[in-house]
Write a sequence for this structure.
């Protein structure tokens, strides 16, 4: 299969002196979407990511694909309409990764939101969202009512939104689509500086963090899609700015086991201080978040403070007083920094969640654009908007949703085909279908090649070694962390331990040619990365 060749970082082609029409810096959901849009329009495109695709804010979000009910409170009708259109498109095109979900808005008598205002807002939200996404409403409503504090008088309102449990996988698919359209993509490659000459951004100086090599690359257009790192990149490029573009706001989550009787719906409620928070079934666990804390430190090192963890726990306990949960029950916590537009005079909750594109021509760096803000949900429309700035007109085709029945029966047939092609159990075939969608047969063909490819990555998961091999061959995974945290994100599961890391690494090594030394180094680096991202509360 030539796998060893793909694993050897020194084989990565030198980029010195190459010229691209578009260089996109930052491989989060926005950067990948922009690279895909430009490549599809036939522009020579290079995507550069200092760590791994989706390793930044994108994998540290609450993972909801939503129209933004909350934005209606601030009059953001246009933003809600755009988000709902994108939600619909994601549900239709990536139905294996983006699923409709029932949300229950639970407000007690002390809420500052009146029932009438909420009903009106929800009516408008449903009208704007169009046809129902088809979630079952009543059972979950009753289940939640039984769990809530009987001493407080709650009103419960039901509405529909969607969840993308693994935006890491969505990014991996978009990356494959971008590369198939002709884009070149490099992770573990950091842009040290944007070069500016005669009032124009002309290229970038980059360092391949694996080989240590440095290159100069020329570009007609440079897109700074580095999310919360956007100002840092400008500073290291000596660009003059009157004010920062980003006002970073940290959001933290805690991940707990699902307790008996927990609703299958997401609960949207008010925290102990009246701020909105979510309690969401996620990855067979419960995800509770988030917070809003101004954060100007390195976004790669964002982590929840002890106060934020207490705040989220207290809010959960206040909502479900009969459920006994404490710090020791937390599987792990994680945090990300929202790259919100800099707005020093506003509270974090009041800052607009609408993205904007900053043209650096005003600071003497024409042909460079910074992407500020945005959401997972609207990455597609943001990419089209950004491409339009470069003179690229892309289509935003509207999509019709297939009926539930046809999707279900298609899925069953698809699973049978994957299972047959890869000599895989139905469980493994389903796991592959859920994470790899249309690329599942390519994974199944790898699984068929040798028995070792059909082994589970660890005993607790249905996911198999062939998915890791596919990540290395086709999805630009380089390190064990790229594989187990983002392409085949089994390490986000509830029972993942260091033993699982060692076992998975040994199984991947057996098919990929990693020697003993490389495997040991990979496991060590992976455990450091996992502990830095998925933190156990102290
Ligand atoms: C707590 C929280 C909860 C959220 N919840 C939701 C939600 O439920 N739904 C929703 O739609 N949105 C949500 N969002 C928003 C959403 O996650 C972000 O808007 C989105 O992920 C931003 O993507 P991005 O590509 O702009 O940034 P990022 O994902 O941060 O990507 C930027 C990338 O640039 C790279 N980079 C930085 N500097 C360099 C350099 N010099 N060279 C090369 N690469 C570099 C970084 O490594 C990083 O990978 C949430 C955000 C947070 C923080």
């Amino acid at each position: 299969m030539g796998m060893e060749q793909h694993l050897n970082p020194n084989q990565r082609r030198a980029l010195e002196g190459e010229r691209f029409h578009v260089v996109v810096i930052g491989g989060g959901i926005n950067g990948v979407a922009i690279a895909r849009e430009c490549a599809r329009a036939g522009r020579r495109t290079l995507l550069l990511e200092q760590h791994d695709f989706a390793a930044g804010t994108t994998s540290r979000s609450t993972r909801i694909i939503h129209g933004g009910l909350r934005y209606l409170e601030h009059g953001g009708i246009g933003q809600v309409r755009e988000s709902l259109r994108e939600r619909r498109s994601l549900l239709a095109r990536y139905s294996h990764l983006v699923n409709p979900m029932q949300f229950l808005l639970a407000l007690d008598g002390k809420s500052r939101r009146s029932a009438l205002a909420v009903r009106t807002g929800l009516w408008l939200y449903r009208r704007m969202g169009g046809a129902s996404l088809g979630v079952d409403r009543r059972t979950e409503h009753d289940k939640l009512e039984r769990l809530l504090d009987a001493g407080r008088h709650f009103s419960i309102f039901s509405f529909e939104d969607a969840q993308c449990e693994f935006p890491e996988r969505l990014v991996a698919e978009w990356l494959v689509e971008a590369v198939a359209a002709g884009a070149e993509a490099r992770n573990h490659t950091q842009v040290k500086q944007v070069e500016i000459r005669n009032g124009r951004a002309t290229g970038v100086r980059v360092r391949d963090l694996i080989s240590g090599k440095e290159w100069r690359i020329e570009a007609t257009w440079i897109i700074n899609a580095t999310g919360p790192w956007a100002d840092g990149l400008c500073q290291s490029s000596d660009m003059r700015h009157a004010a920062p573009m980003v006002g970073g706001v940290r959001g933290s989550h805690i991940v707990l086991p699902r307790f008996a009787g927990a609703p299958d719906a997401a609960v949207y409620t008010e925290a102990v201080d009246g701020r909105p928070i979510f309690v969401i079934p996620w990855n067979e666990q419960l995800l509770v978040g988030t917070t809003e804390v101004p954060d100007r430190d390195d976004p790669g090192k964002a982590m929840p403070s002890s106060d934020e963890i207490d705040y989220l726990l207290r809010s959960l306990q206040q909502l479900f007083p009969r459920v006994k949960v404490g710090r020791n029950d937390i599987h792990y916590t994680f945090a990300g920094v929202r790259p919100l537009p800099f707005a020093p005079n506003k509270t974090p909750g009041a800052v607009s969640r609408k993205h904007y594109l900053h043209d650096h021509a005003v600071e003497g760096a024409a042909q460079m654009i910074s992407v500020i803000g945005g959401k997972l949900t609207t990455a597609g429309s943001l990419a089209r908007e950004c491409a339009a700035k470069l003179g690229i007109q892309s289509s935003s085709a509207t999509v019709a949703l297939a009926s539930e029945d046809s999707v279900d029966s298609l899925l069953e047939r698809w699973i049978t085909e994957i299972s047959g092609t890869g000599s895989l159990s139905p469980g493994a075939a389903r796991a592959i279908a859920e994470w790899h969608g249309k690329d599942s047969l390519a994974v199944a063909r790898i699984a068929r090649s040798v028995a070792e490819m059909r082994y589970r990555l660890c005993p607790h998961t249905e996911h198999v070694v062939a998915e890791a091999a596919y990540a290395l061959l086709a999805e630009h995974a380089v390190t064990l962390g790229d594989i187990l945290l983002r392409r085949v994100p089994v390490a986000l599961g509830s029972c993942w331990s260091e033993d699982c890391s060692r076992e998975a690494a040994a199984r991947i090594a057996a098919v990929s040619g990693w020697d003993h030394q490389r495997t040991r180094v990979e496991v060590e680096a992976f455990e450091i990365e996992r502990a830095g991202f998925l933190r156990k509360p102290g």
User: Anything to note?
Assistant: The chain is about 35% helix and 20% strand. The CA atoms of residues 104 and 158 lie 5 Å apart. The two ends are 45 Å apart (CA to CA). The chain has three domains: 2-57+168-244+353-389, 100-161+249-338, 404-533.
